[in-house]
Amino acid sequence: MKKLYSALMTAFNEDDTINESGIREMVRYNIDHNHIDGLYVGGSTGESFMLSTAERKQAYKIAYDETAGKADLIAQVGSVNLKEAKELAKYAVELGYKTISAVPPFYYHFTFEQIKDYYDQILAGLDVQLIIYSIPALSGVTLSLAEFAKLFENPKIIGVKYTNNDFLLLQRLRSAFPDKKIYFGTDEMLISALPLGIDGAIGSTFNLNAARAKAEIASYEAGDMKKVFELQDVSNKFILALIDNDIYPSLKLVFEEMGVHAGYSKAPMSKPTAEMRAGAKKIYEQYIK
Ligand code: NGF
Q: From which residue to which does any coiled coil extend (predicted)?
């Protein structure tokens, strides 16, 4: 059975400090209501690249404590600062995370040798498995099939979180590495990734839309493609409405509509305007209620 992971959000207070109870509420909602297979902690949806090292650690710890073994956990530790990535990886392992993930080092257009060395250094001396976080549109780093092959030579690297709309590369990855895990990360294109043999999906919108995504996966596995299309169609109207309303703050606003106190996004992300609040209420009423 393919797995579904929510990319956990980080709740903030209005002054941009971490709102611990908000993170706990979202973890509980994912476990108790979504019955989610796992949580991806500290990724893009967690707004992690805007957090200090101490705040990133705090988020891993809150998620770990609140999950209490009831779901899989993956800590995204990637950073352009290798020393920070190593420190975060060590911290996550010490907390008890069995799997970490890391975006390739970004911004400076590193060579592939430098990228490979970054992953090997993060993993050195740690008893943990790693999923590469491939998200070229945001990181600016595109890995080729041959480069994935070289990274996968490290036996601790067990797969990839693939947030990329290159379906040719996805198919070639699946064919070349049947034993590696591939988790797809573009929620609105799940329908196109399912036939390519993905092991599951990790995404932001599953925080609110897990039931529909699970039904889509089940329909796909039952061979009911008409149902798969219908479910993806509703999901896409929901996802595109969220994107139009500013996705991360809006996911939190919809959570608030449901009584889950998800807090704010961190500046420079927007604080909600009256218009965004109205938009989120409408999204909740149309697609979630
Ligand atoms: O948020 C992004 C940016 N992508 C996420 C996901 O792939 C990454 C995706 O769910 C992620 O969740 C994380 O690292 O925390 C989108 O939000 C969704 O498909 C709407 O476009 O690309």
A: none
Helical (H) or strand (E) element with 7 = strand 3-7
- Classify residue 109 as exposed, middle or buried by CB count within 10 Å of its CB (0-12, 13-18, 19+): exposed
Pocket test residue of 45, 50, 103, 239 for ligand 1, highest count of atoms within 8 A of CB:
45
CATH number at residue 46: 3.20.20.70
Q: How far is the CA of 125 from the centre of ligand 1 (A)?
A: 30
Q: Does 9 map to a domain?
A: yes
Q: pLDDT, tens digit, for every residue of 168-178?
A: 999 999 999 99
What's this model's pTM, rounded to 2 decimal places? 0.98
| ipTM for the whole complex | 0.98
Do 60 and 92 touch, CB atoms closer than 8 A? Answer: yes
Beta strand extents in 135-196 (DSSP E only): 157-162, 181-184
DSSP state letter for 270: P
Dist CA 231 CA 210 (whole Å):
11
Whether 265 is in a domain gets the answer: no
Q: Which domain holds residue 206?
A: 3-222
268 domain-assigned: no
Using DSSP, how many helices (H) and how many strands (E) does the chain show? 12, 8
Centre of ligand 1 to C-alpha 248, Å, is: 10
